[in-house]
């Protein structure tokens, strides 16, 4: 019982100091992941771990990294990205060259840079407002630098690797052309308000970690943020079973279109 109280106190203190509500995440997964981190770092209780986190920025970033489950690859699930490239983006550009695109929970930047490559290939990158947000400042710092291990690029088409990256030993540097067009900023999806009028919102492999109540709130917020006809692109384990309640309808597997067009 004391162990439960210890973790509940940790949840309370994290929310007070960071506005991150760990109670909105699936408890068993979150507790297991954070217990592993706490013990690895040599703290007997979550209370002592929290105190250390508040004094040590590196430990705090490690906590955020563990909490946000950064799985980082470009072009993850390539057949879905091919659909973005060959169908959805061309359809959008026919209607409007000045698209508004958002990569939500963008982690270390692979996803928004994938979007940027697709838009650049279609000659539209300079006309598009491309926003990328995440709760983790450490991940955002990495994203802004745009430097990645070769393994992150394993699914990127070869022509794009040559065109949009500069290789230095095992590291690949994203081109300045892409970096200057992506606006990275910090955001807590569950607490902060969203901008509106988006043509495309990409939020993949994050929602799965939230409770059903938190998912419901998030889908409502995403729907309000989309313009009529806009698309929400989710991860391969995040199918929305009743999209109609959010004013959405299936557009393809893992793509949902906002009704109203």
TrEMBL record:
Keywords: Methyltransferase, S-adenosyl-L-methionine, Transferase. The keyword Amino-acid biosynthesis does not apply. Gene3D superfamilies: Vaccinia Virus protein VP39. Coiled coil: none annotated. Pfam families: CheR (PF01739), CheR_N (PF03705). It comes from the Bacteria. The keyword Lipid metabolism does not apply. InterPro entries: Bact_Chemotaxis_MeTrfase (IPR050903), CheR_C (IPR022642), CheR_MeTrfase (IPR000780), CheR_N (IPR022641), SAM-dependent_MTases_sf (IPR029063). PROSITE patterns: CHER. CDD domains: AdoMet_MTases. Residues 1-261 form the CheR-type methyltransferase domain. This is Chemotaxis protein CheR.
């Amino acid at each position: 019982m004391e162990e439960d109280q210890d973790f509940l106190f940790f949840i309370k203190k994290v929310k007070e100091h960071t506005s991150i509500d760990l109670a909105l995440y699936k408890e068993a997964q979150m507790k297991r992941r954070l217990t592993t981190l706490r013990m690895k770092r040599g703290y007997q209780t979550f209370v002592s771990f929290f105190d250390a986190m508040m004094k040590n920025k590196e430990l705090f970033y490690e906590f955020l990294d563990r909490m946000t489950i950064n799985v980082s690859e470009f072009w993850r699930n390539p057949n879905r990205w091919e659909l973005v490239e060959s169908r959805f983006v061309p359809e959008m550009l026919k209607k409007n060259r000045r698209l508004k695109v958002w990569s939500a929970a963008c982690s270390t930047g692979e996803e928004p840079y994938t979007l940027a490559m697709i838009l650049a290939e279609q000659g539209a990158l300079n006309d598009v407002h491309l926003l990328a947000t995440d709760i983790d400042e450490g991940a955002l710092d990495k994203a802004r630098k745009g430097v990645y291990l070769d393994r992150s690029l394993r699914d990127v088409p070869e022509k794009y690797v040559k065109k949009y990256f500069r290789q230095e030993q095992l590291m690949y540097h994203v081109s300045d052309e892409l970096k200057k067009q992506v606006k990275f900023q910090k955001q807590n999806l569950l607490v902060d308000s969203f901008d509106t009028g988006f043509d495309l919102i990409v939020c993949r492999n994050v929602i799965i970690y939230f409770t059903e109540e938190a998912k419901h709130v998030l889908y409502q917020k995403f729907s309000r943020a989309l313009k009529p006809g806009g698309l929400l692109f989710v991860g391969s384990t995040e199918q929305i079973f009743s999209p109609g309640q959010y004013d959405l309808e299936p557009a393809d597997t893992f793509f949902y279109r906002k009704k109203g067009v």
